[in-house]
């Protein structure tokens, strides 16, 4: 048994329910998790933050639109946030990969005064595996992304090619841009990009869907749709120069955007069966509650998916307020609204 009441990996996790659980286990140390963690430790909630140090935006050199931090590297933002969180006595950080989150046998999901979950991790960077118990869990792991299968696309991702239009549109203004994607929402993305450039080509790689009506509307704005299969994104001297089409044509482009396919990075919670949407994103109410009592989610792992870092941080802070309130227990005269919109009393 650890001094803090957690268990070593391989121990009987059910026995941990009799030990002091964490008030909150936060999975993910991105903007949502860090904002939640900071607010929770300031409320003196014993909090364990778990992170695998595999952020989706690790290739991005600068992030924008975050008040007081415009232009800061995302990794620097995470470093500052972690330092602020760990400055509080109630904070603990564990470098690890979460393997499972499960309900404790016999735990009443509605009772926030007792441990309801076990969280199992694989330690990283020399840290040991752990199994801990928690009264509440916040999933803030964001998304896993899949880019179009072009050999060199990763070489330009985060420098000349970006996924967040609101984050990087200003820096790409007035250039010859490409939008590369294989999804059915390319027209909407192209429309957003058009406010920064009048030289944009949408590349579907023979897969992405743009309706004839949308193509006509884009053409009226000077945006061309290229439906041909692509060979690669190419460049020289550290700068992107264009798109190589499978039929041999080279299309000059100096930068642009890519539309990845996304999925929630939360397979570890599968045993809890939280409600998800058609894309696998975890459904939450306005306070971040999932369909599983005591389980919360915030940030990109919830609909609508990828958003600006500032938005994710706000969602994390809002979830922290709801978690802190839930840990105080219910008052019979104060109803709350559940995920389905039904009022619950007590």
From TrEMBL:
<dbReference type="GO" id="GO:0004791">
    <property type="term" value="F:thioredoxin-disulfide reductase (NADPH) activity"/>
</dbReference>
<dbReference type="InterPro" id="IPR023753">
    <property type="entry name" value="FAD/NAD-binding_dom"/>
</dbReference>
<keyword id="KW-0560">Oxidoreductase</keyword>
<dbReference type="Pfam" id="PF07992">
    <property type="entry name" value="Pyr_redox_2"/>
</dbReference>
<dbReference type="InterPro" id="IPR036188">
    <property type="entry name" value="FAD/NAD-bd_sf"/>
</dbReference>
<dbReference type="InterPro" id="IPR050097">
    <property type="entry name" value="Ferredoxin-NADP_redctase_2"/>
</dbReference>
<keyword id="KW-0285">Flavoprotein</keyword>
<feature type="domain" description="FAD/NAD(P)-binding">
    <location>
        <begin position="22"/>
        <end position="316"/>
    </location>
</feature>
<protein>
    <submittedName>
        <fullName>NAD(P)/FAD-dependent oxidoreductase</fullName>
    </submittedName>
</protein>
